[in-house]
Amino acid sequence: MSGRAIRPDDAQRDQPGWTPAVPEPGPLSEVPVPAVPVPGETALPVPPETSPLGSMAILRTASFLVLYLNSAAVFLGVMAQAIARGWLAFELTGSNAALGGILLAFGVALLLATPWGGVAADRLPKRLVLQLSVLLLAVSSAGIGLAVVLDVIAYWMLLVASVLQAVGFALFGPARMAFLAELVPRGSMPQAVSLLLVNAEVNRVVGPALAGVVIGAVTWGIEAIFLVSAVLAFVGILLTAGLPAGLPGEPSGRSPLGELADGVRYVHRHRELNALVWCGIGVTMLGMPYLAFMPTIASDLFGLGSAGYGVLSATSAVGGVAAGLFLGRRGAWVRRRRVFVGAGAVFGLAVCSLAVAPTAYVAVVVLLAVGAAMLAFQTSNQSQLLDLTDPEYQGRVQGLVMLSFGAFGIAALPLGLLADLVGLRWTLGGMGAGVVAVVALYAVAGRRRSAAARR
């Protein structure tokens, strides 16, 4: 968009001596955009395309700031209790398979629920969907915390809590990302996505570090983490009152199953969307289970306790924050596809390096690269998908993207069994090699698509 009105005398502008009768309007990026919701409207009147905004300018958009703070409260609690849940499962069972079982329950439930979360984000007010999702997260956290306090905790309860959390995330993820299309200008989508992902990574630093210290320092640390996580979730629910309702889609007259099928067909018709979704699923499924093995990486490979587990878990998040701050700059997204392919390859190679790290100090350096590469991969994937997807399909496409986290949970159990059988280092090496193979396949197919388009 040029930002210039078309007038009858435009054809004369190349004639000698021509001057405009009135000053020409400036570019669209100079037109002020309201930073607060207009009373009576359900969404901010953000133009569909402007020149990219900086991170601070995006944060000054009132509704985006509310969404950002909501995500901060939710993710701080979730990341802290993930450490507590993993450590609790390890204490109750002492096996990699049990850790994988927690993620399997999460993954299967997420895989089944996420597509419906995408349909809900497209057809219901997005604020309502966020509120219901965070309520489920609060209930699951409070339940485990009370069970530990009453000394009735059992492994199966962790499985049930994982299922509830999966359903909550299946609603939360698609609605949160689809909301961006209403809250920020289209040209600023990569920066907005990066801010939300950095938000999660910052809390993946703070949450595990605090959780590891609390678990190691006090005898009642585990129950405290779960109960505080529930309180943070309720804070997140209160914050959603400051969001616009979120524009629901027009009624289609079709059943939810029919709308889900429409979303799948929509992605399948668009070859680049299809490739991005499947590459994201493959990389996440094969690479992200390293997080499930962090308790045994810390204890078995390097002889560290719960505090060391928290530090190692937080280290990869530090790398993610650094990458996110760099990628949040206005000019960092000139070649998003190259960032996507390069970050995916580096992530796979870094997981391979973790498999052969001789000491905890080397593992810290490697985990910095793991976190940085994974955040760059996720940010470039999400921003391309949001940019390529039509507004009425945003929720369903984001629901399909969330399937990757369900696949990650499903892959964790067989990978855990494999780690018990052949060793954790061999398993990590195979995971990293698989990630590199998936990214290479996407890159080769992408070149073929580009060559076919030029012919």
UniProtKB/TrEMBL annotation:
Q: Where is this region: Disordered?
A: 1-34
Q: What parts of the sequence cross the membrane?
A: 65-84, 96-116, 128-147, 153-172, 193-218, 224-247, 275-294, 306-327, 339-356, 362-379, 400-419, 425-445
Q: Locate the compositionally biased regions of type Basic and acidic residues.
A: 1-13
For this UniProt record, the keywords arranged alphabetically read as follows:
Cell membrane, Membrane, Transmembrane, Transmembrane helix
Provide the primary localization: membrane
- Output the Gene Ontology terms for molecular function: transmembrane transporter activity
The protein's topology relative to the membrane is:
Multi-pass membrane protein
| Compartments it resides in | Cell membrane
Q: Where is the Major facilitator superfamily (MFS) profile domain?
A: 56-448
One GO cellular component, as annotated: plasma membrane
The record's annotation in InterPro entries points to: MFS, MFS_dom, MFS_trans_sf
This one is known as Predicted arabinose efflux permease, MFS family
**UniProt organism field:** Blastococcus aurantiacus
